Amino acid sequence: MSVGAATEFTALILAAIAAETATRLWLAGRQIEAVGARRGEIPQVFSGQIDMPAQVKAADYTIARVRLGRWAIGAEALIKLAFSVGGGLAAVNATLRIDNLQEPWRGILVVLIVLFLLQLLGQPFAIWRTFGLEERFGFNRMTPRLYLLDFCKRQLLGLTLGGPVLLVILLLMERGGEWWWIWASLVVSAVSVGIAWASPRFIAPLFNRFSPLADVALGQRLEGLFDRCGFSARGVFVMDGSRRSAHGNAYFAGFGRNKMVVLFDTLLNTIDGDEIEAVLAHELGHFRLHHVLERLCASAIGTFVGFAALNWLMHQSGLYDAVGLLKPSAPMALLMFLLIAPVFTFFTTPLRSWWWRRQEWAADHYASQHADPGNLASALVKLYRDNASTLTPDRIYARFYDSHPTAIERIERLRAFAGRE
Prior knowledge:
single chain; 421 residues; mainly alpha; four-stranded mixed β-sheet; globular
């Protein structure tokens, strides 16, 4: 046992959690201040389209969400500390000393119990967000029964899909030799691709109903758009998003022959046919510009790097000493990695957000070439209004977190596209 190494790992974990928490709280404070300062100010680009009550609601909703998020940030920091250097993982590991249960089955049990405990500890904030905050601003349509049913489905789905993957990972960690992490990264990447392919047909229907678009004229119009864009899919489906929320959206999922275009039923009540065509042109831009493939490749690279880091971590005896474990353990190394790695990767968030914003700009440009950019702009304005999205975020907060350009930037550019037609 190396006391020095254990002390270094303890100090590193404490410093990383403190830095992440302080940064998140600082960004949250900036967002609250910036949105609150312009609460009664409608940006000029939205004049005549967003009224003052909608602007005030968006500001109040944004501030309420960020304030709740600050409490969650503090709670998450305490949970990470408690389960790592506080000895929580070691306590769970010691409690589950089951003599007649051999590895890797005992390890799987420990990992699943810890992951379930972490899920439960996050539920108070999720429940308050749904039945407190979202309810107060008129967005929640979820019932307690449906919330509980969704939670149980997610746990069963995670167990069904994640359990076998977890078994393979632990077997490779313990018996896969020096290069186990390469095989593990390939397995996880393959499963991720399989889930992305299967999700539209087999996973999403477990939570929502998907009905073929009933509006024949709109369906024919969208088929024309698909032809212009060289896109084929199983069809256009309407999702019963209104069962859970008043928020509206559209997306397409899957790839290969399993692609599916999805419109929220709430979206159809918000925007007209011209605007729906423009919104889907943007979504198709992501497909035609290979953004989905790029993200899958980036995810595979991240998985590879992550397992390489885990391979190094599991051989550091000081790590086990720092968290109160008596000997090295593959399940504990995996849990420590899952718990602490996000603290370090958090600081790559601005880079990822920047990349995603570039993709959004590109998809907007693609949409402007295959549909009316003015219609996309008007659709987005309605979505900003109806979803109570802030029009005046803090600049640094937006650059750090936001996967989409700010509302002002996006609408101004789309109107510039429309003006050049």
